[in-house]
Structures are given as structure tokens and as C-alpha cells.
Amino acid sequence: MTLSSIIEDVTGEERTLTIYDASDPEAVRAVENHFIVQRVSVEESNAPDGPDDFAVLHDDGEFLAAADLEALRRAVSFEAGLLDATDLAEVPTPEVLKHVGNTTFTSYGKRRMILASREIEERAWRAGGGELHSGFQKLSLFRDQWDLYGRVADRGVSVHAYGVPDWSPPDVPWLTVHASEDEEIRRSWFVGFDSPDDRDCALLAEECEPNEFGGFWTYDEDIVGDVLGYLRGAYA
Question: Distance between CA atoms of 108 and 38, rounded to whole angstroms?
């Protein structure tokens, strides 16, 4: 087993996002652009008895989540403060994004990868326990996230950081560093959370082109277990 083989084994779930009575074509286009590289189709419809500018995510007709279109647009357009969040309690993530789980993507840039990572980091912060495993490719990139991960650790979360050893993090009780020169660590971006309350989740991707990633994120405990089990065995 390798990180690449785990990615290959995961099949994304086909889902549909229906936007009802949209008044802002630009908002619809932003949402479409976000989901274009995922197995989520976006369609528009009318609902005379329902609210305007409303998005509903469903899987083969089964309702999964709903969100205000403008809130969803802000989240996928990176206008919600996610990239510069100083208080994880204030990080807004529409329920629609939380339910696009076990979803594959073929071409995510760095900003989209940060958004997906933030959702998992926020979940760890809210859980107040468990283990958070994050691959930064290079440990020097972890330095830029040090304050954020310190706040997560303050909530009782143990952090495991993986990367090429081009920087030595401070020696603190909440951190375990897995320094490695392995090619898969150089190429992989991952954030996996082993939750104390059965809310495990993981993001795993490989860099296909400079700053372009392909992979998946999932809330399936078995798949998360595969990812974390491999990391613990290969880089303990």
C-alpha cells in the first residue's frame, strides 16, 4: 500500500447540486467552477413555493444538505476569511461543502486545497481531542501554519507533521514530527483527523503539476483508517 494506491482505490460519489431561482449568474458560475473538477453536477431549477437563491445537494434524489447561494459563493470564492482565519471558531463552512464527502477531484490549485484542509482542521479544533496528521511536503511550509496548529493543539489535539526536513519545528509536547525525504511525502498533501467522537475525515492528494493536485477527501471511517494506518506504519 502507498498513498498513491489509496487514491487510486477511492471512487468519488456522483452527486447533484440544484440551485433554485438564482438571481445572480456570477454566483452560479462561481459554484459551477468550484465543482467542475469533482463528481458533482450543478443544475438550475425553479421552486415557486421555495426561497430564491437556494442550493440543495442530493445523492440519487436523497437530500443531503442545503445552503444559501451567496454564502456558498463566498466560501468557494475564498471570500469568507478562511485563508487568514485567526479564530477557528469563526470559520464558516456551508453544510453543502461538508456533505461532498468521499469526493474525488482532478485539478485543485493551492487555494482550494487550503479550503479543504481548513474544514478538517476546524473539525479537529471543535472536537477538542484526537490526532491530526498533516503532510506539508516540506516542513518549512508547516512554519507558516504554526500559530493555527498551536490553537488546534491548545484544544487537546495531538498533531503529527510530515515533510522534507528543511526546517526544524520547536520541540513542544503536542507535536510529533515525521521528517522524510521520501518522494511520496514530497508530492503529497494530506490532512487526516482521527476523531474521539467518530467523526473521522481526511484529505489526500498528489501534486500532478506545480501547485495542481488530484485526489479526494472523505468522511468514510474505513478510508480514513487506511490513510492513517498507512502513515503510522510507514513513518512511525
Answer: 10
